Amino acid sequence: MQTITTTEALAEYCARAAQHPYVTVDTEFLRERTYYSKLCLVQLAVPGDDAG
Fold first, then answer.
1. What confidence tens digit (pLDDT) does each residue in 31-48 have?
2. d(C-alpha 26, C-alpha 33), whole Å
3. Which long-range contacts (CB under 8 A, 24 or more apart) does 8-14 make?
């Protein structure tokens, strides 16, 4: 697993991910005490990613 914290690291990941036929996306939102949910986490994976 890799944590991406900069725009540059995200751009590098996107460039690598663009070489694959698909990208899976999982999101987590915070919905407590608010009408609008707040995005808290985005998880991305491409074929061959190490999930460990």
1. 888 788 999 999 999 998
2. 23
3. 13/44
